Structures are given as C-alpha cells and as structure tokens.
Input
Amino acid sequence: MSNSLAPLDSALTDGPINQLLAMGGPVMMVLLVMAVLGLITFIYLILVGAVYAPRLSKKLKNVITLWQHSPADVNPQAIRQQTSRWAKLNPLHGLITNTIEARQNQQDDGQIRETVARDAQQALEPFEAPLKIIEVIAALAPLLGLLGTVLGMMEAFSAMAATEGRANASQLSGGIYEALTTTAAGLVVAIPFAALAAWIEFRLRRIHKLVNSSLVTVLTASAQAFAVATEAASEATTKAVEPTPSQPRPKAQDEPESASHSRQRFAHATG
Output
C-alpha cells in the first residue's frame, strides 16, 4: 500500500506549485494567484462585453435616421415588440427608445438629459470593476516582485551573518536566485496585464463616445424636428386666423368731393 502511494506523494512534492515555491518562495505563490485571478477576470470581461456591451446595430441606425427626418413616424412600443431577445441585451437599444419616447411625450429637456446620463453610466458599470481589478494586478505585481527580491537578499545576508562571513557560494546563490526569480515573475505578470488594462480602457472610451454621440444625435435631431413642426403649426394657425380680403372701400375723400359737386349743382340751379 505504501509503495502504491509513493508515486502520488512524489508527484505532489515535486509538482509545479512546489517548484514555484522553491524557486521564488511564498511571494511566487501570491503572484501565481494574482495571475490566475487576472486571467479569469479578463475572460469574464470578454464574455460580458460580447453580450452586454453597447453597440450601434444597423436597426438602431435606421431608427435614428428615421427619427431625424420624421419623428412622428417612430413608434418606440413597436420597436420594442419587434426586437429580439438578443438585441434587447444591448443597453444602447433601451437608451435610444426610452429617449425617443420621453421626447415624444414632451418631457422636460433637463430631466431627459439627467435620465439619459444616469442610464448611460449604469450601462458601463459592469465593465468598470473588471478593469479596476486588472489595473490593480498590473500595479501590484512589480511591487510583489520587489518584495520577493528584498526577502531573497535578506535571506542571503542572513546566511552570511550566521556563518560569520564564511558562507559558501551555494548559500548566497540560493537567496540571490530567489530574489531574481520573484522580480522576473512580477514583471512577467505585470507587463501583459498592463497592456490589457490599456486596451480595455481604450475600448471603454470608444464605447462611451459611441453612446454619447448616438444620444446627442437623438436629442439634437428631435429638438430640431419639433422646432420645425412647431413653426409650421404656428404658421398654419396664423394663416387660418387672417381675414379674407373684401371689396375695396371707396376713398373717404371722394365723399366730400361729391358733396361739393352736388352743392355746386344746387347752387347753379338756384342761382
């Protein structure tokens, strides 16, 4: 029985985790956990981004174009009913339809803009926490590597102090090897995660710019369209109120002239 368990014990003792601990000490284990956590966070972020990231689909472009030219022909309720479940997961779809519906209901512009800003911020919140985790890992990994370097050098000088300066090369090389290993491991973990954090931040800025430009287009187009409609309605009302032209009235000065002519005739007849 003991002979059958011997290979298992040797596999556990000589496994990769124990080798990493032997190479860099406990700091190496912390770096390994951080690397695994960062990789899981990045995969989660990719999956969440593929499903819940705001994106401007062809249907939303058509809705915005129709809203720019003819706001009265846009029906938010019909758009929601005709949208598939997959498309409803797009936060930008709800932002645009809700903004159009609020604009058609003639709500206050300030209230609409506050609601849109709050909803847009909530749409980007699922991506902020994973980005922060990756940024923290990229920042802490070199510091942990530096900590391992300090611990390794302390071990080397401790061994030298224990032997009163007569430490052999193997004792000194062990501490220096641990110090250099943790430094290299910290840089290996930090460099790719720093690049991933920069790439994710760039993608989030593009998404934020896309959401802002789409919503500003909806608000600006609706304001212009409603202004034109209001102006046309006022012109129609003004034309309806104006009176119809009547026959021209005789000049007021004609009456005195006829009266003077009649007086002259009467005077001539009597005189």
